[in-house]
Amino acid sequence: MPKILIIDDDPDIVEGMRVVLESKNYVVTNAKNAEEGIKKAKEEKPDLVILDVMMETKDSGFEAARQIKKENRNVPIIMLTAIKEKLGFDFKNEAGDEEWLPVDDYLDKPLKPQELISKVESFLKNK
Amino acid sequence: MNNPGEYENLVERIFWLTRLRWIAIAGVIIVLIFTSFVFKLSLPYFYLYAIVGVLGLYNLIFYFVLKDTRNKKPEGSFSTANRIANLQISFDLACLSGIIHYSGGIENPFIFYFIFHMIIASILLSRRAAFLQATFAAIMFGSVVISEYANVIAHYDLGGFISLSQHNNPIYISGTFFVFMSTLYIAIYMATSISKRLRQREKMLYEANELLKEKDRLKSEYVLRVTHDIKEHLSAIQGCLDPVLTGITGELNTKQSDLVQRAVSRTSKLLFFVRALLEITRIKLSKDLKMEYFSMKDTVKEAVAAVEMKAQNKNVSISSSVTLGADKIKGAREYILETIENILANSVKYTPQGGRVHINVDDKGDSLFLQVKDTGIGIPEDELPRIFEEFYRASNAKEIERDGTGLGLSIAKQIVERHKGRIWVESELGKGTTINIILPK
């Protein structure tokens, strides 16, 4: 079954999502911070990453996304943030590639179980 | 004396001086017409009108220079404006001296009009510069009087007004000149004392206002931090409750399901409120919104689509029209979309079955005019002024919907004002409400 990596420092959020995802038989693994997340993304090669934006510093989530994509450009990353919060970030030019964004989608917490499942399914179906 | 805001003040006052000068020019012309046709004084009218022409010419030039300075706002524009003010007053004093010379010199009672410039100088300039202007006026006027006395330049009699010429009477000259000069200096002293005090008060008000703004910012930061933390906890609560409610963790019996449902519903409401509070606080704290060009037509379409289902369920018809030319606009699209969505959602919510909601966007040249009209319950007249206040909800709205943040229109107002636009509401109880928005392109 596809493996999903959740990077979030809030264990309760992780647990809620784990229950939902495991009910659909996904393999769920998690990391508590960006550093651990990048390491796990490299070692465990997840099929999808769910990443919280508000970790240690304001843009550490985005930085983690960039690191993960550097290793594996094809892994979809869903970022957990309100769409408005991302307005301040502009990564297009920094990467030197107009089309390239470190994350594939944004979702605001909390996610309804159905919303989470359909989002994950839509990304994994495309693979 | 150079505190922020003072530059705008100075420029504003110089514009005022420019406007005054047009009135003065008109005044001089009227007086000249009277003296020539009614009093039939024989004066060198050609020179007098020439001076009026010079006045008009430099008034025009200064007007454009000033406009240019204000638009560009380059570094050191304050001293530029200051120099313009000084120069204008000096030019005026020279012109006035010229007019006085060609119309009777020391015998002309209009010599006391120099006082007006002393007052203007006291308002516009520093005390030192104002005294220098007074000295300049005294020198200009003094040299006219002395030159006329010494026959270096001609004296023009005001025959018919003053029967016996006094321009070569040394006692009259020195006496009048002394009164003239002391009047100028005393006028400067008094006017600068008043304007100094006013400037101090202005500065105090400015500082007090800055302090309030800073305190308001601290309060907003505090609200942001607290709300953000609350939202994190709420998200976790909801994230844990939802899987239970949906039965992922196993079937619930009716009572369990009912209770969890209640808990989820309350958490949702609280989350909705916290999100709105976060949003308005974030907008307040953000220094500048990211502006880009976008299509108003598409945005309106998207906003209408977002509320269409709700409208259909209530049998409320919703329609939109965007005039040609009212499409392209520069702004923060996400925020504008949200504003329109919120207003439409409000209209649908407070419009009874069978009613109508219509959004119209018109082109107003350099701005767009948005109107959302509904045939809803309306807002009581005495509550209209409070409708944009944070957390305020109209009394009849509360009857229809118990829960609501009272933040929707406050957020809309914040967003519109951050775009340098304007938002206002018109409403008739029981008939409907119109929200009007002007957004600069």
Write up what this structure looks like.
The complex is a heterodimer of chains A (127) and B (441). With 127 residues, chain A is α/β, with parallel strands linked by helices. Helix content of chain A is 39%, strand content 17%. A five-stranded parallel beta sheet of chain A has the order 2-1-3-4-5. In chain A, helix 3 links the parallel strand 3 and strand 4 (77-80). Chain A is globular. Chain B is α+β, with helices and mostly antiparallel strands and 441 residues long. Helix content of chain B is 64%, strand content 10%. Chain B is built from eleven helices and seven strands. In chain B, the strands form two sheets. Chain B has a five-stranded mixed beta sheet, covered by helices on one side. Chain A binds chain B through residues 10, 12-13, 15-17, 19-20, 23, 54, 82-85, 87-88, 90, 109-114, and chain B through 228, 231-232, 234-240, 242-243, 246, 248-249, 271, 275, 278-279, 282, 286, 289-290, 332, 334-335.
Rg of chain B is 34 Å
Determine the number of helices of chain A (DSSP H or I, runs of at least 4 residues): 4
| Biggest interface and residues each | A-B, 23 and 26 residues
- Tally of individual helices of chain B: 11
- Rg calculated over all Cα atoms of chain A: 14 Å
Per-chain topology:
The complex is a heterodimer of chains A (127) and B (441).
Chain A: E1 3-7, H1 11-23, E2 27-31, H2 34-44, E3 48-52, H3 60-71, E4 77-80, E5 105-107, H4 113-125
Parallel strand pairs in A: 1-2, 1-3, 3-4, 4-5
Helix pairs in contact in A: 2-3
Chain B: H1 6-38, H2 45-72, H3 77-102, H4 114-124, H5 127-149, H6 170-245, H7 254-285, E1 292-295, H8 296-313, E2 317-322, E3 328-331, H9 333-349, E4 356-363, E5 367-374, H10 395-400, H11 408-418, E6 422-428, E7 432-440
Parallel strand pairs in B: 2-4
Antiparallel strand pairs in B: 1-3, 4-5, 5-7, 6-7
Helix pairs in contact in B: 1-2, 1-3, 2-3, 3-4, 3-5, 4-5, 4-6, 5-6, 6-7, 7-11, 8-9, 9-11
